[in-house]
Each structure stands twice: as structure tokens, then as C-alpha cells.
Amino acid sequence: MLCSPSTIIINSKSTQVYSNMASNQFVSILVLVLTLLLQGDNNNVVKAQLTTNFYSTSCPNLLSTVKSGVKSAVSSQPRMGASILRLFFHDCFVNGCDGSILLDDTSSFTGEQNAGPNRNSARGFTVIDNIKSAVEKACPGVVSCADILAIAARDSVVQLGGPNWNVKVGRRDAKTASQAAANSNIPAPNMSLSQLISSFSAVGLSTRDMVALSGAHTIGQSRCVNFRARVYNETNINAAFATLRQRSCPRAAGSGDANLAPLDINSATSFDNSYFKNLMAQRGLLHSDQVLFNGGSTDSIVRGYSNSPSSFNSDFASAMIKMGDISPLTGSSGEIRKVCGKTN
Fold first, then answer.
1. Catalytic-labelled residue, pool 79, 90, 228, 283
2. The pTM is what?
3. pLDDT at 24
4. Does the annotation count 90 as an active-site position?
5. Distance CA 100, CA 182 (A)
6. Where are the alpha helices (DSSP H) in the chain?
7. For position 20, what pLDDT does the model report?
């Protein structure tokens, strides 16, 4: 059947309309797909990153609450500042900064607290629990124990006269822990320089980060069992210093193992750079301390920190931020524990 010219024109317009509609639909679908993809990318970025203002709306009093708890604990017992800082360090080196070290053992669960580096040594759990309780009252179910520990570590350093830094937050809490990983991943007091460098490198921290973070030993104390071999057997040690430490640390293994000595003989409750000055005088308490200044590749870094407190403070703060970025749980991973010592 032949069509009239008018019919032909109408069909031509209809075809054009349908063509435009199809084109518009295609563009709309394409835009939708691209938007979803971009949202996916953004979600991945958010999941991979922490921010300093994560709780600014959901828990605006978080920082002041943590600071108050730390101030009270450290004022009561100055050594507690070092203990809380060490808790954060030992948390981050075991599968990331996820609060796993805070989980208590149960009849059906073995966590990290009784691993070799932590057993009869790790302290500060009650302080973190108390701070968590206060935070829960202010903003229930919002802030992770992992973040509270990260903030408390910073506040402990500041409370003892050390540098300040902006703590990145947004971590979530692990639902499990690994005693085996704690035994193998946490640097040991008898490590060589190369072993220390490798241990820190394994979690993305540089040699300079390692030396700066070792400067945390400007505060706190260590048990005789950790420095006995050094003060009796090693030669790169100040004689008078070795004799002094031997007085409270008997040579026989098993005798006085828990006796304490300050990691920094000059100022164990003040965060300063005297730790590095001690190393240059061969008065490092642990083997893993003195290897940082023993004719090796890190001598120049130690010398630099010994001469410049501001350089040490700056590098320490940067290294703490970097350490806090180790494998955090974010997004929908993990959980926000109600109590730090157990999963929900």
C-alpha cells in the first residue's frame, strides 16, 4: 500500500522522536551507571581512609571525654601514660589498629593479652574501659574502642609533655584477635637492627619511623626479664649503668624477673629526647634500644634527635599518625563494641 506524503512525514517525525527518546534513555542509563560506579569508588575511598572529624557531629564531646579520663589516670600514676601508648603500639602491630588487644580471654576465646609480649606486661585496660564507659554515656554505640585507644595514646604523650597531633579516627573494632600474630608480629627487646627495620617495614613504617617510635621509650619501665641479658652479657654498655641495673635484676633467670627499671634513666615520666642522649652514652636499657646507636645505619638519626628535640617531636607525631593508619577496619567491617573487653 502506498503512503501519502503526509503519512511519510508523520512517520519520519515519529521515528525521530523515538530515536531521541532512545538516545535520552541511553544517556540517562549511562549517567546512572557512571554515578553508581563513582559512588562505589567514593565508598571505597571512605572505607580506606580515616578522618580527624569523623565524630564531630555524632559525638562532639569525644575528645574532651577521652582527655579527661587520660589526665586523671596519668596524674594518679604517671607510668600509665607509657602503658596506654604501648597498648596502642601493640594493637596496631597485630592485624592493624582494630582494638583487638583489648579483648579479654574467655573459656571459648583466646586473645592477645596473654601473648608473650603482653602477658604480665600490658597495662591500661581498665583506663580504656573507664573512658569507653564515659563515652558510651555521652554517645552510645557510636565510638569504637580502637579509636578511643588511638586518642588516649596521643593524650598520654601530651600529658607527659610530648608533642600533640590530630588523631585520625573512624576505625571500627575487630570481632576477633590473634595470639599467634601477637607473638610473631610485635617487635621483641632482643631484636637486632636489621630485624627491627624489617619488622617495621612489614607494616609500612620506615627506618626513620622506627627510630622515632622507639623514642617512646623515653617514658615507662621495663621488666628485668627483658634487659637481664644486656646488663650482664653485652659490652656496648656503660659500666656504671650496667652495675646500677644489676642491683635490681639478679643474674639468675626466674629470680626478680618482674623487677622494674626505667627505660629512660633520666626522665621516665617526661616525654623528651633524653632517650637518644642515653643511647649515645651507651645507656640504652634494652638490646633493641642500643642497636639504634651502635655503629649502624641509624646512628645519624639518633644523633639528630639527640641534638634536636623539635625534630624528634615532629617525626614522632608523624610516625604515630602513620602507624595509626595500619589496616583499620572501616565502613561495615568489624563492629562498635559496647564494652571494649568483649564482642557484642
1. 90
2. 0.85
3. 53
4. yes
5. 10
6. 5-48, 62-76, 79-92, 125-138, 145-159, 179-185, 193-201, 207-214, 224-233, 239-246, 274-280, 287-290, 299-307, 309-324
7. 52
